[in-house]
Amino acid sequence: MTQEVKFLQGNEACLEGALKAGARFYAGYPITPSSEIAEMASQRLPAVGGVFIQMEDELGSMAALVGASMAGAKAFTATSGPGFSLMQENLGLAIMTEAPCVVINVQRSGPSTGLATKPAQADVMQARWGTHGDHAIITLCPTSVQECYDLMIYAFNFSEKFRTPVIFLSDEILGHMREKVILRDDIPVINRTFPQGDPKQYRPYKPGENKVPPMAYFGSEYIFHASSSMHDETGYPNNTSQNADKVIRRLYEKIYDHLDEISIVKEFETKDADVLFISFGSAARSSREAVNMMRKDGIKAGLLQINTIWPFPDRKVQELISRAKVVLVPELNLGQIINEVRKLSSGKPVFGVNKVDSTIITPYEIIDKAKEVFQNV
Questions:
Q1: Is the pLDDT of residue 375 over 80?
Q2: Are 178 and 7 contacting, i.e. CB atoms less than 8 angstroms apart?
């Protein structure tokens, strides 16, 4: 099996992964540090029969994704913090209408315009709770340029299989870093389930396998209505309390019933770790090097690298915390994932390694904090 090898930026690898997954529609508005994705999409998509549209803003971009998805396309966009904020309302529309799509957020320093070309990891909770109402969301977070490619395919697969938008939470460091990437072709590509049977009997929101309705597309013989309002299996509004409970729970359960499949984590030296790092994205790269350096000094350190950040991998985190003496959570914010970890710590000490000055956390900073707290445990 021949697999192409390239030397790519993380942003470029995201685009390659999207194309491999079958993405053929992009609508977006250029914003640093994600602009390379839009630039490449404008060149590559038309060459493979796809469509690129530069929209007037991010509100329209997200709306266009929903429409393209309903028309049968695998659709995606790329943005950063301010643009991601503008997408939240129509992200909720995608959740409610069950329109599969992928939203890449290459995080930068904020709030507001902030430092437009500098890294941060402060959109973690916005990815989970940014749009209003009870909802579930899948959020994947790469730690290397290779994972920008690999996880982008998984993002589209999860989106198609579970009929849901998926957030791809990168950051400026990964977006602009260059590494060797194998353009793998051994990750199966999943497409949405198309309905079978008499089109006249089609109920667009009648759950099928795994509580996910088969999805027709606009223009097919299966005519259907999609509404942002609470609707029943016909797609038309139904405001009864019984129906609302049924729909909201199903939208949640179609994801949370499949945590074992959706949750992607990687472990490094965790079997005997006294000092456990739990991290994600670019901060996990420094954490892994810190593990290597501490092991050479005779300290049993290990890393749980989280690639599926939502739903949060509660069981794995709980399992590894139970074996460690001290837990540290390096992240480029003032503490977001650490709060999820503390919920699962059963009183065991959990410390943050935090940085918000727009520079990466170094392995040395992580080691200094680990040694400081480990000596006092």
A1: no
A2: yes
| 267 sits in which H/E element | strand 265-268
- Edge-first strand order for the sheet with 25-28 is 51-54, 25-28, 75-79, 101-107, 165-171, 138-140, 308-310
Q: Nearest Cα to 102, choosing from 68, 129, 146? A: 68
* Helix, strand, coil distribution of the chain in percent, nearest 5: 40, 20, 40
CA distance 214 to 208: 6
* Cα–Cα nearest to 164, from 192, 196, 124: 192
232: phi then psi, degrees, rounded to nearest 5:
-100, -160
Q: What is the tens place of the pLDDT at every residue in 272-331?
A: 999 999 999 999 999 999 999 999 999 999 999 999 999 999 999 999 999 999 999 999
**Residue 2 confidence (pLDDT):** 64
- Contact between 80 and 42 (Cβ < 8 Å): no
